[in-house]
TrEMBL record, chains A, B:
<dbReference type="InterPro" id="IPR008136">
    <property type="entry name" value="CinA_C"/>
</dbReference>
<dbReference type="InterPro" id="IPR041424">
    <property type="entry name" value="CinA_KH"/>
</dbReference>
<feature type="domain" description="MoaB/Mog">
    <location>
        <begin position="4"/>
        <end position="170"/>
    </location>
</feature>
<comment type="similarity">
    <text>Belongs to the CinA family.</text>
</comment>
<dbReference type="InterPro" id="IPR001453">
    <property type="entry name" value="MoaB/Mog_dom"/>
</dbReference>
<dbReference type="Pfam" id="PF00994">
    <property type="entry name" value="MoCF_biosynth"/>
</dbReference>
<dbReference type="InterPro" id="IPR050101">
    <property type="entry name" value="CinA"/>
</dbReference>
<dbReference type="Pfam" id="PF18146">
    <property type="entry name" value="CinA_KH"/>
</dbReference>
<dbReference type="InterPro" id="IPR008135">
    <property type="entry name" value="Competence-induced_CinA"/>
</dbReference>
<protein>
    <recommendedName>
        <fullName>CinA-like protein</fullName>
    </recommendedName>
</protein>
<dbReference type="Pfam" id="PF02464">
    <property type="entry name" value="CinA"/>
</dbReference>
<dbReference type="InterPro" id="IPR036425">
    <property type="entry name" value="MoaB/Mog-like_dom_sf"/>
</dbReference>
<dbReference type="InterPro" id="IPR036653">
    <property type="entry name" value="CinA-like_C"/>
</dbReference>
């Protein structure tokens, strides 16, 4: 079963709001086996509405629309659809009473706009809206279905979840859909594609593979569509085995999970704590960790040591090391990590020191050079990276690389302890 | 001038990502006088790409596309467009060298995928991508223009801002558009709208006003479209005077400028330095400050004191105060600020202590309660805020409120000194 989504509203076309309805609807529709093959955002005009519907029903049997159902003059979806499907607008007594009651709560009387809201297209299927005055309207002709919903996200979501999705799932013949995401850290998209070339070539045709890159992380997504759930699951399991064998610990999660969440779960599970000593990441690692609710259970604090004086005075980095090797060096970053472990009193500490850019690079240490260290009470490891020329990207990639080093260290410590 | 936007990618259609590119592009295009009359999101298939282009160029002369330009097999936009416009793919030596150089930095050799990336359609206009390997391609036929850009947001934004928008603005006949943004801190959208009610009612009809709220900040945007630049400018100047009289120091900038940039300019101008001592903001203030290039000139470091032990040991907060008043108190936050000034050695320090949520609230100190202090060597001020119930929002609003307190303090110190 294929569908299209049409969202109506000038505010989308001037970029004043981001259309988040479509993504939400797509995800929900995919989950019940209805795939979305096109999303169109159009303006509040009769021409745009009619032409987009005609195009959509020429391609698919099901069209879901949101928007343009408000009480003001710029909202013309109901009138346009009723004309298009040759339905007369008639008063819905139940809806009229409901609107009257809602208005009474705000001590407002019925006016022409509200009376208009109580009209519904005769012959269309009307699905109630528990949180607003504009109901969902389902028009059908020649096995083509056009369903119009209000654009207010929580009204639309409520209509879909509590009423529409169950009906669609029951009345249409939908296949089973399975998505499996694999989160990979530390490999660029093209390098990853090369590594996976042979594996990818042998993928069963039912598996659709997508690479979804963001700085420092590539999300690999396998999507399968079929009738036999257990068969699809078996195929995915098998392919996951192959991926694990190739990528090993480059994979940090099998859900669409952030690495800071993976770190959080590991630390909570092992009852360990972490701190950070940040130079080039400038507090971003602390920010990422503390963005998650409940982080005080495993995160104690950070020292953002942007100047050399703070590296020395708060973290206890040797001033000779700073002079001899420079702030961006293995010696200094290791002392920063060890210093943070002690000063903040945690089991693990992550330290970063690098040249985020755009200035400050040298021949020997170009912009993007970052040293990262992980310390425990009795051990410290470190690694040098060269990321990009772009400041924001370097900060983000260094943060992710630091978390990934910590993840591997925690897992290895676990392994060594049997 | 009218345009359409087409975004390509199955990840949009399965709802894995929200298409934020379109809204950003629409806003930028509107700003140079190009209106967007349709946005279409389609899948990575040849049929979908070709049919959506054909439909779009039947309605408008300019089509901007993003996505499907990666090096992997699922990305087919370049091949499809080149076939459609009958352009042969030829190697671009400059691009080849650039890709080789990029790869060399990561110590990676050229592979088949990367070599493919160096191919460009002969006859199309190629606009460089400074942050990635997929350039922007501009195809033209019979005065219809189709421009394809990578879907990675920061690559697309850079291409548009630094190269494409200036070209579009110059080569197409666009009306003069004037936008004036006013950045307002510390007032919710509805309260601001109420305060500005009378001023808004008297606005000349040529001025289109938009409220663009984000947590802690409302961007007010006046947009004027016309032929006479100086006339539009005079109207805006006049309205700005009115706004300043009403909002005073609630306005922190007149460009679309971030508050951390405003702080940076002030500190650089006065040759002063700042540090932060963060509890509930968890490093976000340090992160925001260090996101800006050149921040080491005025930012020395931070202590993220998430646990009480760190507040005491690193910032020197009195343990009796912690016990008597709790971590979220005027006493503690003032000691944190004073402690950071000393420990990090800066002219100013901002400290935050609050309950970000979702847990940890009490009757007396509900989730969203935040104490913020600003200290200098001989002075400390503090203020209590109650923000929202949402963690991310509280972190962001507390950070902005702290910066705004610092901004006002620097301006007042300046005023007192004559």
């Amino acid at each position: 079963m294929q569908a299209e989504i049409i969202t109506i509203g000038d505010e989308i076309l001037i970029g004043q709001i981001v259309d988040t309805n479509s993504a939400w609807m797509s995800k929900e529709l995919n989950a019940i086996g209805i795939s979305v093959n096109r999303i169109t955002s159009i303006s509040d005009t009769k021409d745009a509405i009619v032409s987009s519907i005609e195009e959509a029903i020429s391609r698919v049997d099901l069209v879901l629309m949101t928007g343009g159902l408000g009480p003001t003059n710029d909202d013309i979806t109901k009138k346009t659809l009723s004309d298009y499907f040759a339905c007369e607008l008639v008063q819905d007594e139940g809806l009229y009473a409901k609107i009257e009651e809602r208005l009474a709560r705000y001590k407002i009387g019925m006016n022409a706009f509200n009376r208009e809201q109580a009209l519904v297209p005769e012959g269309a299927r009307i699905i109630p809206n528990d949180f607003g005055t504009a109901p969902c309207m389902w028009f059908s002709r020649d096995n083509k279905h056009v369903i119009s919903m209000p654009g207010v996200p929580f009204e639309m979501k409520n209509i879909m979840q509590s009423r529409l999705l169950p009906i669609l799932s029951e009345e249409f013949d939908c296949p089973y859909v399975l998505h499996q995401t694999v989160m990979v850290q530390g490999l660029g998209e093209s390098v990853l594609a090369e590594i996976l070339q042979d594996w990818e070539a042998k993928l069963p045709s039912v598996v659709k593979l997508a690479y979804l890159p963001s700085p420092g992380v590539v999300r690999l997504r396998m999507s399968l569509l079929g009738d036999d759930e257990s068969e699809l699951k078996a195929i995915v399991e098998n392919q996951l085995k192959g991926l694990k064998a190739i990528l090993g610990e480059r994979i940090f999660a099998f859900d669409d999970e952030k690495i800071e969440q993976v770190i959080a779960n590991l630390l909570l599970d092992k009852k360990k704590t972490v701190s950070t000593a940040e130079s080039c990441t400038g507090g971003n690692m602390a920010h990422m960790l503390t963005s998650m609710a409940g982080s005080s259970a495993y995160f104690k604090g950070s020292v953002v040591a942007y100047s050399n004086e703070v590296k020395a005075s708060v973290l206890g980095v040797n001033t000779n090391s700073l002079e001899e090797f420079g702030a961006v060096s293995q010696q200094v970053v290791e002392q920063m990590a060890t210093g943070a472990c002690k000063a903040i009193g945690t089991d693990y500490a992550i330290a970063t020191s690098g040249i985020a850019g755009p200035d400050g690079g040298t021949e020997e240490k170009p912009v993007g050079t970052v040293w990262i260290a992980i310390a425990t009470a009795d051990k410290v490891i470190s690694e040098k990276f060269v990321f990009s020329k772009e400041r924001g990207r370097n900060i983000r990639m260094a943060s992710l690389a630091g978390f990934n080093m910590l993840r591997k260290m925690i897992l290895n410590v676990e392994k060594m302890m049997g």
